[in-house]
Amino acid sequence: MTNSELINKIKSLKDLVANTDDERNCVELSKLFDSCLQLRELIENSSLPSNDKELQAAVCVCIKALERCTVMVNELELFSSNETADELQTSSIRYLTLPAILGSLNLIIQNKDLSDRMKYVEMSEVYFRDFLLRCTNYELCETSLKYFKESLENGDLKEVKSDPSTLRDKRIQQFKRKKELETKEKTLKPALDRPESEEYIREYYFVLIEKWILIAVEELENLRREKEILKNIPKKENLERTNLRDPKSSVKPLKPFILTKNAVQKEIFGLGYPSVPVLTIDDYYQQKFAKMVNEHKTNKPGQSLQDAALSGKGLDKEAEDIQKEELMERDDPIALMKARQWDEWKDDNPRGSGNRKNKG
């Protein structure tokens, strides 16, 4: 669905609501309700993000139009508490779904403030509960309403205490039943275009009502959990007061510390943290190499490197390895030749080959 299709449908629905006659007869109610269902179907199948402005505008327009339909249904007195489901007119049965559809649309509305979200959650809960109570009064779909009745008996839609396996089996049964109803709904829907098939049209509406019953029961469970979460979230006013009373800028960060066994250990080892590195590895090797060169320059004239090493003032093994690495990195030809010769000699003379201990 594109934005242009949505805008056109919104405009046509607004015009239809504005041009509704004050007498509000059944024909006008039917046209308005059909337009609302078409717009709701566009909203449900839309690929637009849920916070899209045009989509949210369509939701609000659809809610207003359905509220107008509810007023018209009440003024026309299409339902009575003294009736049974068999006494309902076929054309009036579908208007029983008005509260359920309004409840589902109110849940789509996006809110920046959590307090507004709570308002729509409570409103949806009222719509779903009213829908289920109407269906209970008309004794519709007793099997699907069983969990709702048990919840009412336990105290105003509170969760029924049951073991996890029973709850899991109940949800699986509800899911399977919902899929069966959706398949049956698609099969019976073409009967709406044939007014003479009143029996199938009536069956289609009852299937639709049962599907909405399962949706309403599931949504009421979700709304109960969402309300608990929203109640535990601090209100905006409390957050502002907390920020004014304890601004973050005035809070000093805590310094980490490590407890030492005694004062002597603290003086020797410090706080227990390792030294912070101040040199890179390259800087360290450069310093070692410079130190080695300076020490070599201070040796006596004519003194070899071996004599300097024996005297303790020359190159140590670590400095010599560093020098070799420096020469290899610069691709020094002499160093490369010596390295190759040394590798060849090690290949010809494996470790331990000369240590025969006079065994021949």
Rg result: 42 Å
N-to-C SSE string, H for helix and E for strand? HHHHHHHHHHHHHHH
Tell me the number of helical segments per DSSP (H or I, 4 or more residues long): 15
**What is the number of strand segments?**
0
Structural class category: mainly alpha
Q: Which spans of ≥5 residues are poorly predicted at pLDDT below 50?
A: none
Distance between the termini: 95 Å
Average pLDDT: 76
Residue fraction in strands: under 5%
- Described by the principal axes of the CA atoms, the overall outline is elongated
Q: Helicity range of the residues?
A: 55-70%
Largest sheet: none
Verbal overview:
Helix 2 packs antiparallel against helix 3, helix 5 (98-106) packs antiparallel against helix 6 and helix 5 (98-106) packs parallel to helix 9. The protein is elongated, with a radius of gyration of 42 Å. The mean pLDDT is 76. 65% of the residues lie in helices and 0% in strands. It is mostly helical and 360 residues long. The chain starts with a helix and ends in a 12-residue tail after the last helix. It has 15 helices and no strands.
